[in-house]
UniProtKB/TrEMBL annotation:
The lineage of its organism: Eukaryota, Viridiplantae, Streptophyta, Embryophyta, Tracheophyta. It comes from Stephania cephalantha. It comes from the Eukaryota. This is Uncharacterized protein.
Amino acid sequence: MFMTGTTDTDYVEVCERLLGGTPVGDEIIGTKLKVELLECNIPAIDDNSGEESVQRYVRSYILQLIGGCLFADKSN
């Protein structure tokens, strides 16, 4: 089954909740997030990092891999 339609999701809020950072300006356009944002803002983790920090790090890292390495194009 496929579903189509519009959404009123606030993607800036989603980035804050899942990645721990808030994109500004042209770092996010609609549903597109610039890979440079992930490269510059991957949170540092160490042995004392909490579970939420580790999860945000992993999400950022995976998104950077997918968007920057696996599906790289000239539009970033």
